[in-house]
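Give me the 3D structure for ATP-binding cassette domain-containing protein.
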Amino acid sequence: MTAAVEVEGLVKEFGDRRVVDGVDLTIPEGTVLGLLGPNGAGKTTTVRMLSTLIRPDGGRVRIGGYDLVKQATQVRRLIGLTGQYASVDEGISGRENLYMIARLLDFPRRRARERVDELLEQFDLVDAAARPAGKYSGGMRRRLDLAASMVGDPALLYLDEPTTGLDPRSRNNLWDAVRDLVEEGTTVLLTTQYMEEAEALADSIIVMDKGRVIASGTSGELRSRVGGQVLRIRTARREHLDELVRRLSGMRVRNFRVDQENRLVSVPIVNEAELTGMVQVLAASRLPIAGLDTHLPSLDEVFLTLTDQPRESDPDATVVLRRVF
Ligand SMILES: Nc1ncnc2c1ncn2[C@@H]1O[C@H](COP(=O)(O)OP(=O)(O)O)[C@@H](O)[C@H]1O
Ligand SMILES: [Mg+2]
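Predicted structure for ATP-binding cassette domain-containing protein (325 residues):
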């Protein structure tokens, strides 16, 4: 597979602060990379560098085979950017915004009108097309941002926290729109503070904190670093719970957690053989069971585990992360 984006040792300094500190990442063509991290991690700065808006202080970047700095013009032709602070003009209508961008991109008048109609249709903005963008709801505004970044049909799309502040329904609509673009072959770099969003859209995920990559992999791989599955057993009655706990202790099952209120026992499971063994023992015990399921740690749990050690340089780091997530 050809790499649409290859980044090695990317650095950005503001004054004496290194806000992007040696970031490596690769986005294969036609895939979505989720760049996940709390506020201030350096996500937007990374996207701005990869968009040619600001110049890196170090590192090497190739986009579609072009050098980011030496061949910036070619790079710009490949990318679309939907920012946290996108450049939509609030005083004119959605249609006028898109038309203006199409003309800026040198579309002839008629082709510009056609492209605008396509995009209004694609992003479900036909009814709102004539209204000033400033009057749009949050969800409509983000769809207009996305449409604006797609006018030139970019091969590579940057989405910088595209759903921050959106209600769940608008968020899902936007996710669907992004999935459609990916299906048509667009390569996407998505920044987000939401594990769920990275998991919903990204083929692979990079976790960034304080300018550095602290973990990477698929959501499954990130999860497995934290632990395997957890078997949850709910007993029918309180006294059954006590009996279950006695038997598990007798079986030398370790590290299980008991939730008295919900009559729930959670047992960490390392492999399938262990899971099978547990279920057989449960069946043989003939204890009445009200519920049984397996559960994977959420990405939020994963992130907290990955970042749980406060650093010498910043004892508040963990507190901040807990608040953000
Ligand atoms: N133009 C700038 N000048 C000085 N500091 C900046 C500038 N842009 C961003 N920063 C700082 O760099 C750090 C990373 O910011 P940013 O890339 O916006 O993070 P994120 O998008 O992950 O929230 C923050 O501490 C921010 O205050
Ligand atoms: Mg940002």
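Residues 309-325 have pLDDT under 50 and may be disordered. Let me know if you want a second pass.
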